[in-house]
Each structure stands twice: as structure tokens, then as C-alpha cells.
Write a structure and sequence with these properties.
Elements: H1 11-20, E1 32-37, H2 44-60, E2 65-70, H3 75-87, E3 90-95, H4 103-112, E4 116-120, E5 131-135, H5 137-154, E6 164-169, H6 175-188, E7 195-200, H7 206-220, E8 224-229, H8 232-244, H9 260-268, E9 274-276, H10 279-294, E10 303-305, E11 308-313, E12 316-318, H11 323-328, H12 335-338, H13 344-349
């Protein structure tokens, strides 16, 4: 929020400002910024997003205070954390909402008190935030679906009557999950591979995805040619369901987030793909936007989404073929963290270790 001193500023300061054509500069020094994440179903927030944001804030504004909290998929808890951040003097709140619709009232509440809100990872469609930073979620959905279709065709898995793929989406309260879902449909449209059944996973919870997938395995059995899962947690749940039913090999399953567990499943041949989207990239971008807002500057937007100026990053699809190049060689994960125990043989086969 730009500070105005028109009633109290001296004539000299006013004249200097008008002559320069700019606004009076604000300082980010000693400001408080909140970083509020939605859940712990994915390990990314604790392991990547929060550390990445805090590290970048320290570089950009060493005197700034960062409040980090995770709502653990509880809408009421996130509301409390949001209110607490404002009461602690936060001037910018980076919000990854548990419920994108419910978050609209939080945005209005903050903006009514002069507090800026950066929507993070998940958009807030009903009320424009001050900025939105994320990977391109619709592109993620389309990419993983198209990758699966290409793999099925390359391995001569032809669609036939009664066959098709399962689609496991993310949480129905997450607008980003809706974008991924839309992208998946775009990737599967006109592919020739039918969607046998589709499920919106409450809270992105892997056990719920596993339970649903187990029912579909019983229902469709060998007619399931593959699974488009919206993230690595739901993918892991689906893979567990197939394994429990005695499938060997498991039909190809997609994912998203490049978690350690998913990368190891790709190495072992149990998961087909994932999306490499280092959360630190988005976290650092959010920190940069936060500091610009604290200074009264206008962050540069590449696109507008839901009437919100936005910065969207392009993700990379990872399969066994490019895991070493995309993950190991780029320093996103270390070979020693992926290749222990039963994964050693797979890592040797993929050239990750000798």
C-alpha cells in the first residue's frame, strides 16, 4: 500500500516528489510478513516452500520478521492463523489457501486493513488478491496427461472397448486442483483413451486416493490402462492399491511435485512420471513480490488470472528417461538421498550412480 503524507509532509518534500514524478519511497525494514501454508499431506511445504521463502526473505530484507504457519488442512485453523498474522502486524500475507472459496473473505478482510495478500500456488478466484505466484497448474495437468498418452502409444497399449484410464484429482476445495483437473481433461481429450472413472480427493489425502483406487481396481481390473494422478501423494495411494491387488507391473501412474518418494517410485518402475517444480523457485518469487509490496512498488505481472496480476512458472515433466538430467544434474535432489537400499539397482540402470 502506498503511503501518503500530503497533510503532514513539508512543502520541500512534496515538491521534490511531484518533480520526480514518483511516489514517496517506503521501507521494508523491520516489516512483518506471514507465510501461511495449507496442509501437511504433502511434505513440500515443510521441506521446500517454507525454507525457500524464509531464506529469500533473509537475503532481501534481513530485518524483516517472517511468521510461518501450516493449517494442516483445517479451514478454521487457517482463519485463526490469518487473524493472528494481522494482529502481529503483518503487512503482507502470502496465503496458500486450504479452501480457495473461503479464502476470498480473508483477502477482503486484509485489504480492508491495508494488508497486502499474495495468493501462493492456489489461486483465489472469487476475490482478486494483490498478486498470484505459482507454477502453471493447468499446464501441469495437461503435461502429465499427454505424457501418459504418449507412453501408452509408444508401448503399444491400444485403447479398446471397456478399457481406459483412471483420473485422480486433488482437493475439491483447491482452485489449483481445479486447474490441474482442467488440464488433465485437455490432455486426454481426443487421445482415444477413455476416462473409466474420476475422483476428487478430499484434502489431497493419499489414503483417500488409495481407498478409491482400490474400489476401481476391483471394478475394472485389467481394463485399467493407466492412472492420471494429480500429485505424487495421490499417485502413491493409487500405486499402493494396485500392489495390494497383486498387480505386477503396476499400470503407468502420473504424479506431480517430484517428492523423494515419487522419484524413488520412478526409479523402481512403479510410477511413470512426475512434475519437477522446485518449490524454492516459487517461494523466492513470492518473497521478491512481498518486498516490492512492502516498498510500495508494483510487481511486474506476466499474465492476469482471476483478475489478479500473476507470475506463473513452467514445469518440467520427469520420467525415468530424464530423471538424472532434470533432478540430479540440476541439484534438485542428491543421488545418495534417492539410491539407497532397494533403489540402488534402479539407480545404476538409469545411470544415476555407477
Amino acid at each position: 500500500m502506498k503511503t501518503t503524507f500530503w497533510k503532514t509532509a513539508g512543502l520541500g518534500m512534496l515538491a521534490a516528489t511531484l518533480l520526480s514524478g514518483g511516489a514517496l519511497a517506503q521501507s521494508a525494514d523491520n516489516a512483518t510478513v506471514a507465510f501461511l501454508m495449507p496442509d501437511q499431506a504433502s511434505t513440500r511445504y515443510e521441506e521446500h516452500d517454507a525454507p525457500g521463502f524464509i531464506a529469500e526473505m533473509k537475503k532481501l530484507c534481513e530485518s524483516c520478521k517472517v511468521i510461518y504457519q501450516n493449517a494442516d488442512a483445517d479451514v478454521a485453523r487457517q482463519q485463526q492463523q490469518f487473524n493472528s498474522a494481522i494482529s502481529q502486524g503483518a503487512k503482507v500475507i502470502v496465503l496458500d489457501p486450504v479452501d480457495s472459496a473461503a479464502a476470498a473473505s480473508l483477502v477482503k478482510q486484509a485489504q480492508g486493513q491495508g494488508v497486502k495478500v499474495i495468493a501462493y500456488d492456489r489461486p483465489i478466484p472469487a476475490t482478486p488478491a494483490d498478486f498470484y505466484v505459482s507454477f502453471d497448474n493447468e499446464a501441469i495437468g495437461k503435461s502429465i496427461a499427454e505424457s501418459l498418452v504418449e507412453h501408452l502409444k509408444a508401448t503399444n497399449v491400444e485403447p479398446g472397448e471397456g478399457t481406459g484410464v483412471l483420473q485422480i484429482n486433488g482437493s475439491p476445495t483447491d482452485a489449483a486442483a481445479g486447474l490441474i483437473k482442467k488440464g488433465i481433461h485437455a490432455g486426454l481429450d481426443n487421445s482415444g483413451y477413455a476416462i473409466l472413472a474420476e475422483f476428487d480427493t478430499p484434502d489431497w489425502a493419499p489414503p483417500k486416493a488409495q481407498q478409491w483406487a482400490a474400489g476401481q481396481v476391483t471394478r475394472f481390473n485389467k481394463n485399467i490402462l493407466g492412472v492420471v494422478a494429480a500429485n505424487d501423494g495421490t499417485a502413491g495411494g493409487a500405486i499402493a492399491a494396485f500392489k495390494a491387488a497383486g498387480f505386477d507391473p503396476v499400470p503407468p501412474v502420473t504424479g506431480n511435485d517430484a517428492t523423494t518418494a515419487a522419484l524413488q517410485l520412478i526409479i523402481s518402475g512403479d510410477q511413470y512420471n512426475t512434475i519437477s517444480k522446485p518449490s524454492e523457485i516459487v517461494a523466492a518469487a513470492a518473497a521478491n513480490v512481498a518486498v516490492q509490496l512492502l516498498k510500495g512498488e508494483t510487481p511486474k505481472a506476466e499474465v492476469t488470472l482471476y483478475d489478479t496480476p500473476s507470475q506463473l512458472f513452467v514445469p518440467a515433466v520427469v520420467t525415468a528417461e530424464n530423471l538424472k538430467a532434470e533432478i540430479i544434474d540440476k541439484g534438485i535432489a542428491k543421488a545418495e538421498d534417492l539410491c539407497g537400499g532397494r533403489y540402488e539397482e534402479g539407480c545404476k540402470k538409469l545411470g544415476i550412480i555407477e
